[in-house]
Amino acid sequence: MSIKREYGGIQPGIPLGPLALRIPFVHYRFEWADYIQGLLMCTVCLAIIPVLTSKLGMSFEVALAIVILNGTLYLAHVTFGDPVVPGWVTPAIPLLIAYCMTFDAGVERMQSLIAFEMTFGIFCILLGVTGLAKKFIAIIPNAVQSAVLIGAGFAAVMLVFKPGKGLKSFDAYPWTIIICIGLAYYLLFSDHFKKIRHNNKFLRVLSNLGMMPALALAVIVGPLVGEIPWPHYETKIFTSPDFIGLWKNFTMMGAIPVPPLKMFFTSLPMVISAYIVVFGDVIQSQALLDDAQKYRPDENVNYNPNRSHIIFGSRNLIMSILGPDLSMCGPLWAAMQVVICDRYKHGPKAMESINGGAGSFRLGTWTGYFLSPILATVRPILGVGLASTMLIQGYVSVRIGVLKARSFNDLGIAGVAGAVLATRGAAWGLGAAILLTGLIYLGTSLEHAYMKEEPVFPFNKPEKIDAEIKELANKM
Fold first, then answer.
1. Is 67 helix (H, G, I), strand (E, B) or coil?
2. Are 100 and 426 in contact (CB under 8 A)?
3. How far apart are the C-alpha atoms of 185 and 93, rounded to whole Å?
4. pLDDT, greater one: 10 or 164
5. What is the pLDDT, as a whole number, of residue 271?
6. Is there a smaller number of Cβ atoms within 10 Å at the N or the C end of the chain?
């Protein structure tokens, strides 16, 4: 029996400085609907496994151990007072892959990933503790932010269409990817589908599942076109993650030496690029919860961006030691946060607390990682799932990047610097964006330049652009 809160009060918890400890069944009601949905959606989280195996040389079982560790740390958000559904830093994944690939396979590549994730974690913790997050992002010109997002979009698409038969390559599963990504694009971005889903309960549920319908289709389409095998089921109930192999061969607790100081410095451009993406997720979290709060005066949804920084920064720091992960630890899975918030709006009978919905969902995904039938069902399509994720992310990142531009000059800078970033890495891309911004706006303040120059979207008001950015961010 969970502790009841006062009307309009904050959900009960145990204060821990800036954090608040909340235990399921004690401090919030367990929500079975969200838990079951989490069991299904754990398949999206498993899609990072092909990257970990192909780029870092891990076995499937070691990569699964990393997914489970990351999934365990997902639980930290609601447990310590952050009422969100956390996820990957998805737009930055192709950039981080490109960065790590500049190092030799094996020990050096793992050191580069460890140095980046540790630096990124410490950086986010410091911004959360000091409350400087907004001030830091405010000093980055829109052209540079736009370049990072557009570059991330280019890199995501390039990751899929790079020639070869890799697990995530278009050449390996062309028909499966074409059919499944076609369905995903229609469900997520089509104006026609937006119109018809409002009049059909089934279509509304389908749209709330994000990529799940496309992945379910891949399980059937892939074998029918002969590109992937049918799922193979074993008699065992539970999966077999290899934690010992992970810690022995891929962490600083085993075969990987502590990275040299130089690697921590060379990771800084990648850290800044990833943080530009992450800050957008933090703003998105605030916007989604503020919107949900309007419908639920019975609960004070106490979202604190600084607390969120401390939690996801700590997750990255811990993962850099226990299980370095190319998907990184982000503050938000926007698509599922939207689903949770929409159900929360229906009142206390539907969802007693936003903490219960978000916490139960992530407990569902965590449970799913251990169930062998679920893993056996999705294992053949993990490459297709990753390719679809990257193609959707490419679409979203490019559109948001374009909308971030405040002027035609910004858009030109972002296009050039974004292409450099996608092909040569974060250091070159950020350098190009900063240099071009300095040259083009030399002697003129950015604010003054924006006032003089014709806006990129003269037919749109700024608030409409912001609304479109939020809607697009909800797709991932």
1. helix
2. no
3. 20
4. 10
5. 96
6. N
Burial (CB count within 10 angstroms: exposed 0-12, middle 13-18, buried 19+), residue 438? exposed
- Cα–Cα separations (whole angstroms), residue 71 to 284, 336, 389: 21, 15, 18
Q: Are 409 and 451 in contact (CB under 8 A)?
A: no
Q: Compute CA 121 distance to the chain's CA centroid, rounded to the nearest angstrom.
A: 15
pLDDT by residue (tens digit) across 187-237?
888 888 888 888 888 888 787 777 788 888 999 999 999 999 999 888 889
Q: To 10 degrees, the CA torsion angle through 237, 243, 244, 245?
A: 100
Contact in structure between 340 and 357 (CB atoms under 8 Å) = yes
> Regarding predicted confidence, which is higher, 144 or 210?
144
Residue carrying structure tokens 């700024």: 462
Contacts of residue 7, defined as CB under 8 A and 6 or more positions apart, other chains included, come to 298
399 within 8 A of 470, measured Cβ to Cβ: no
Residue 151: Cβ within 10 Å count: 36
Q: Torsions phi, psi of 15, nearest 5?
A: -60, 135
Residue 459 has pLDDT above 50, yes or no: no
Q: pLDDT for 410-423, tens place per residue?
A: 899 999 999 999 99
* Domain ranges for the chain: 29-473
Q: Could you tell me if 437 and 139 are in contact, meaning their C-beta atoms sit under 8 angstroms apart?
A: no
Q: How much is the average pLDDT of 239-243?
A: 96
Q: Which two tokens stand for residue 18?
A: 């800036």
- Biggest alpha carbon–alpha carbon distance for the chain: 70
CA distance 352 to 399: 36
Cα-Cα-Cα-Cα dihedral sign, residues 23, 346, 362, 134: negative
3-state helix, strand, coil in the chain (%, to 5): 65, 5, 30
Q: Which two tokens stand for residue 4?
A: 């009841």
- Range with the largest mean pLDDT of 186-195, 202-211, 261-270, 390-399: 261-270
Q: Which of 100-104, 201-205, 279-283, 447-451 has the lowest mean pLDDT?
A: 447-451
337-373 in b/e burial notation, b at 16+ Cβ within 10 A? Answer: bbbbbbbbbeeeeebbbbbbbbbbbbbbbbbbbbebe
Mean pLDDT (the chain, rounded): 88
Helix and strand totals (H; E) in the chain: 24, 2
d(CA 46, CA 375): 8
Cβ-contact 360, 75 below 8 angstroms? no
